[in-house]
Amino acid sequence: MLGRRALPLVLLPLTLALACQKADTPAAGAAGPAAAKSEADAKAGEPAGDAKPEGDAKPEGDAKPEGDAKPEGDAKPAEDPKAAEGASAEARPMYFERAITPQDLEGRTLRELNLMRNTIYARVGQQFRKRWLSDYFTAQPWYQPADEADRSKLSELDLKNAEAIVDYERAITPAQLRERRDALNEKMRGDKATPEDMIEFQLIAALLGEWEGGDAIVQEKRSPLEDPDRLEEILAVEDLDDMSLRDLRILRNTIYARRGRAFRSDLLSGYFADKSWYEPKDDYTDKLLTATDRKNIRVIKSVEDSLGGPITDWGHMMEEGWFYGA
Question: Which end of the chain is least crowded, N or C, by CB within 10 Å?
Fold first, then answer.
């Protein structure tokens, strides 16, 4: 997820026509990164492709996302049986056929916010690389995954609601996230954590870019986005098979950020700005990258290439939820 800083508003309001654009998020269960080489085969040396990822130096500004969706109306949630099925395991609806209000989002966990946003896209056949999302929607009787989701069925209201959910999530502060994390650690220590709690803990860790506690979750199941210390070791392709193109872009740039690179991309700058470990250096050069860093960049880049290539800020915004699920 993007950092919680608000970005300047320069994009035009979303229109229904954007819903028809091709998704950047590859289908879950689609051909895996066959072209990606394992870390054992990754050669040391300069990073593959462009040594400097998108969002490299400070000088220029990239496209800036965001338009605010105005919640309105107090109509009842949709009576759509599909939405009802999707909400059956939840205390509150996952889908609305009216504008979402702050009250609809208040008190939701990160897991619930993710489900709300992605239910919008699941209803038109979107598939998901993230295993927990794929498992959740596959269990819903109304879900009919398609090779290519029919985004022409997304309404302007759907798109505005997805954006409202993203905006709400991004407004959650690191302090609030850490407070939630501490509460989940208490549950784990008391052996009272549910599988949903485990997912929530990992979502929080990914947003914070740090891992603290979570002893009930074995290290092998921790994404390097959730626990950046894992980047001190060479990654395997299998470590990345649960990641979307957005996740891969952030992970690749995390390697640079850990060595002090500044970014011209507002999306990347916003994401790293509130990470406790991020300290941009005026004298940064790629010479600060270690041999392990370079090998991991190659592994990540090979997976990105197998999924159609790295995304730009525009693709990043689409995966964040303004247009597509993530």
Answer: N
Contact of 313 with 63, CB cutoff 8 Å? yes
9 is a domain residue: no
| Ramachandran angles phi, psi of 181, nearest 5° | -60, -40
> Structural domain of residue 182, as residue ranges?
16-322
Tell whether the torsion through CA atoms of 220, 224, 228 and 230 is positive or negative.
Answer: positive
Total domains in the chain come to 1
Instruction: Judge whether 126 and 187 are in contact, CB under 8 Å.
Output: no
- Sequence letter at residue 164: A
Please write the tens of the pLDDT for every residue from 120-175.
999 999 999 889 999 999 999 999 999 888 888 999 999 999 999 999 999 999 99
Look at residue 48 and tell me if it is in a domain. yes
Distances (CA, A) of 29 to 128, 130, 134: 8, 10, 9
Quickly count helices (H) and strands (E) in the chain. 11, 0
Residue 189 lies in a domain: yes
The set of residues, in sequence order, having a beta carbon less than 8 Å from that of 320 and lying 6+ positions away, is: 1, 2, 65, 166, 246, 326
Entry pTM: 0.68
CB 302 within 8 A of CB 30: no
Residue 57 inside a domain? The answer is yes
Judged by DSSP in three states, 34 sits in coil
109 close to 200: Cβ distance less than 8 angstroms = yes
